[in-house]
C-alpha cells in the first residue's frame, strides 16, 4: 500500500508541551495516544512506517519477514504456521489462538447473513440453519477436500457446486473462496500442526529423515520428516534453499534447528541419502549429538544398485525379451 504523502490538519497541529508530555518525552518510552490498541501480537513484530491511521508496516523479530501493512490475523497466522524461528512457547500460543478462530468467524458470518436482507437460494427450501458445531465439521471437511485433492478454491463459488451443496443440505451456508483459502485453511493448518506437535512431544526414539530435490519451478526444496516408532511419518519442515550454498556445514545447521525444536533426547537417528554434502552433515550432527545414530538410507542404496544392474547387457536383453511377450 502506498504511504501517505500529505499531513492531515490534525497532524499538523503542534502538540502542547504539557507536564504529561514532558514526562513521556523524558522517560523515552513510546506513549499510545489513543485509538484502537495494536494487539498483543505486535510484541513479536517491529513497527515500521505508518501506512494509514492505526496501520503500520511490520517486520517479524524472529525471521525478519516484512509486510507492507501489518494486519493482526495475518501476523498471528505467520507465528502459528509460517515462521521458522519462532520460540516454542510463542508457537504453541498462536497455534491455539488461530485454531480457536473458527467458532468466532462462523458467528460473525451468520450475523452478517441475517442482517443483509438479501434473498438466497435457501429461501426456496424448507430448511433451517445448521447447528454451529455441524457447520464447523462440514467446513473442516470441505477445506481438507480442496487441499488434499488439489482443487481450485474458486470452485466453491461455482453455481453447479453450490447447487450440489444445497441439494445435499439446504441449511448449509458454504464459505466464500476468500474465507475458505484464508481463515479456514489457516485454522485447519493450526489444528493439524497442534496434533502433530502433541504426538511428537509424547514420543521417544524418533528418526529424522531429510532429502532435497529441484521442483518444476526450479526451487531447491528440502524436506525434514519425523518418523515415529509406530511408523507414522510427519512432514515437519519444508524449506526452499535455492539462495543458499548446500554445504555440509549449512545443512548441519538446518538439521540442528529441527533437532533443537523437537529435543535432542527424543531423536535416536538421522537418515538421508549418501550425497557427499549430506553424508558429511550427518557426521557433523552425530559428532555433536553422540546418541543420534548416523544412518544411510538403505532404500536409496538398493535403488542405486538396481539401476546399475538394469544397465548391464544381460539385464537389458532379459528386459527386452519380456517386454515383447
CATH superfamily of the largest domain: eRF1 domain 2
**CATH-defined topology of the largest domain:** Nucleotidyltransferase, domain 5
CATH architecture of the largest domain: 2-Layer Sandwich
Overall tally of structural domains:
3
Using the CA coordinates, give the radius of gyration: 27 Å
Strand order of the largest sheet: 6-5-4-7-8
Number of helices: 12
Structural class by sheet pairing and helices: alpha/beta
- How is the biggest beta sheet arranged? 5 strands, mixed
Stretches with pLDDT under 50, minimum 5 residues: 1-16, 18-30, 122-126
Order of helices and strands: HHEEEHHHHHHEEEHEHEHH
Separation, N- and C-terminal Cα atoms: 66 Å
Query: What is the average of the pLDDT values?
Result: 79
- What share of the residues lie within helices? 40-55%
Number of strands: 8
Strand content: 15-25%
List keywords for this structure.
alpha/beta, Nucleotidyltransferase, domain 5, globular, disordered N terminus, 12 helices, 325 residues
Nutshell version of this structure?
With 325 residues, the protein is of the alpha/beta class.
What is the topology?
Elements: H1 9-12, H2 19-27, E1 45-52, E2 55-60, E3 66-67, H3 72-82, H4 88-99, H5 101-116, H6 132-148, H7 159-168, H8 177-201, E4 206-214, E5 220-227, E6 233-240, H9 248-262, E7 267-272, H10 276-288, E8 293-296, H11 298-310, H12 313-323
Parallel strand pairs: 4-7, 7-8
Antiparallel strand pairs: 1-2, 2-3, 4-5, 5-6
Helix pairs in contact: 3-4, 4-8, 5-6, 6-8, 9-10
Amino acid at each position: 500500500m502506498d504511504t501517505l504523502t500529505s499531513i492531515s490538519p490534525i497532524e499538523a497541529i503542534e502538540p502542547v508541551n504539557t507536564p504529561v508530555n514532558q514526562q513521556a518525552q523524558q522517560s523515552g518510552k513510546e506513549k499510545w495516544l489513543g485509538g484502537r490498541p495494536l494487539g498483543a501480537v505486535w510484541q513479536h513484530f517491529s513497527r515500521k512506517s505508518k501506512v494509514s491511521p492505526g496501520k503500520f508496516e511490520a517486520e517479524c523479530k524472529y525471521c525478519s519477514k516484512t509486510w507492507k501493512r501489518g494486519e493482526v490475523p495475518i501476523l498471528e497466522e505467520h507465528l502459528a504456521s509460517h515462521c521458522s524461528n519462532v520460540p516454542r512457547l510463542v508457537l504453541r500460543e498462536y497455534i491455539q489462538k488461530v485454531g480457536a478462530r473458527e467458532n468466532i468467524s462462523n458467528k460473525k458470518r451468520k450475523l452478517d447473513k441475517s442482517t443483509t436482507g438479501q434473498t438466497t437460494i435457501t429461501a426456496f427450501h424448507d430448511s433451517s440453519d445448521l447447528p454451529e458445531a455441524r457447520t464447523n465439521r462440514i467446513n473442516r471437511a470441505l477445506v481438507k477436500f480442496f487441499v488434499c485433492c488439489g482443487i481450485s478454491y474458486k470452485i466453491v463459488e461455482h453455481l453447479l457446486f453450490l447447487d450440489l451443496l444445497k441439494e445435499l443440505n439446504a441449511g448449509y451456508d458454504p464459505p466464500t473462496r476468500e474465507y475458505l483459502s484464508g481463515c479456514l485453511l489457516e485454522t485447519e493448518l493450526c489444528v493439524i500442526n497442534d496434533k502433530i506437535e502433541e504426538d511428537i512431544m509424547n514420543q521417544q526414539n524418533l528418526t529424522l529423515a531429510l532429502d532435497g530435490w529441484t521442483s518444476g519451478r526450479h526451487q531447491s526444496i528440502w524436506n525434514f520428516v519425523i518418523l515415529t516408532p509406530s511408523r507414522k511419518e510427519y512432514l515437519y519442515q519444508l524449506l526452499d534453499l535455492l539462495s543458499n550454498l548446500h554445504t555440509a556445514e549449512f545443512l548441519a545447521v538446518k538439521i540442528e534447528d529441527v533437532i533443537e525444536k523437537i529435543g535432542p533426547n527424543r531423536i535416536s537417528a538421522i537418515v538421508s541419502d549418501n550425497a557427499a554434502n549430506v553424508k558429511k552433515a550427518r557426521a557433523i550432527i552425530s559428532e555433536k549429538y553422540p546418541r543420534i545414530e548416523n544412518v544411510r538410507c538403505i532404500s536409496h542404496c538398493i535403488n542405486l544398485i538396481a539401476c546399475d544392474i538394469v544397465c548391464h547387457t544381460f539385464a537389458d536383453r532379459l528386459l527386452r525379451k519380456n517386454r515383447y511377450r
